[in-house]
Amino acid sequence: MITISIHHRSHLYLDMCPKRAATPFDATTAAEPKPAAPSAHVATELESSASASRTELSSFVAPANKEYTDIPATQRTWRITGSGEPAKVLKLSNDTPVSSKLKKGEVLVRVQAAALNPVGYTLMDLLPGFVLRRIHAAEYDLAGVVVNGNDTAFKTGDEVFGWIPPNQFISNNQGALAEYTRLPAENLAHRPSNVSVTQASGFSVAGLAAYQALTDIGRLKAGQALFINGGSTAVGSFAIMIAKALGARVAVSASSRNEAYVRELGADEFFDYTKSPLHEQLAAANPTPKYDVFLEATGALDPTLFVKSPAYLARRGVFVSVGPQGSGLGNYASFAWNVFLRPSFMGGTNRKWKLLSVKPDSEDSLEFARMVEEGKIRPLVDSVFAFEDTLKAYERLMSKRATGKVVVKVDPAVE
Hints:
Number of domains: 2
Largest sheet: 7 strands, mixed
Number of helices: 14
Distance between the termini: 38 Å
Helix content: 25-40%
Structural class: alpha/beta
CATH class of the largest domain: Alpha Beta
GO molecular function: oxidoreductase activity
CATH architecture of the largest domain: Alpha-Beta Complex
Radius of gyration: 21 Å
Domain Enoyl reductase (ER): 88-408
Protein name: Enoyl reductase (ER) domain-containing protein
Number of strands: 15
Pfam families: ADH_N, ADH_zinc_N_2
Organism: Trametes cubensis
């Protein structure tokens, strides 16, 4: 699938391409407390065969000494029965087959928790029903236990977190809202021991999006300046912590009710976008030096922030977008003209605009996990729902009031 096509048709920040070349990855609820330091005695070894640069880590959850020989033939999943909103098309199935026959490089995971994403309900409404009905379970983000490592870097009993990209969601008919799912090993990382299962389940989609936006596309370095439009979104929140870990200065926008939240995450400067047009506030602030990276984390369809960016984005800076979201062909036509087509002599913007395409990358996942283990990135959990209450979880997510990830516990026993 073509990157520009998927982003402008589905308005997502996820790419459908399964692999890329290796590279050096608003609301009222309070942020969760910083997780406790990891126990020193918990240890595991990451397999060196996946990459020559992998090293031993001391604080990841060790594999349990248990062989899973009791994998059932069927399972409970939340299946998509057609196109539409989750409340109308998502149904709980008690007899979905467990896809235990693995391809080379795949592992089978017993899912313990899944986190919901806007892309989940967007694709439910976007894709045709005949495609959706083939898929065994909805959603992408998960945490769980490997029950068949299939000669990969993971062993039976490894506790992991990871994600299923939309292309694999469609081609393999696998999803995260299931008791078991199969996915490529490169989509997984060992779960750091200083976070719980429910906390880790929300790392991959938003966390990798933030990491790749700043390090792969933005090339953000220590001492540089970053602006995040949508600092209280999941992507924006992770981006704040990642940028601070990289040694950057961070300014963000959010509503006033979320100022304390984003500052607590590490934001150095705050702009209330509800007071006046944000581009006017930024131009008036006359940042010195100007921002090196501008991360559009809200999916805004209005191109104004990019068009006006020479007033606050450095000449060699980059404007990174998670992908415009909205409706109306006229709006998209205006966006395309102002961002891609208008030449500079006709008022076009002399700045780089880049579309974020999140891709599986084991090294990015490993580095993200390392930051979590070191306490530089903390979990962002808004709320946790029982598996049977998945539709209520979607209500929370779609209310646009969640700060952090909305999580569904597939296994009621986990924390």
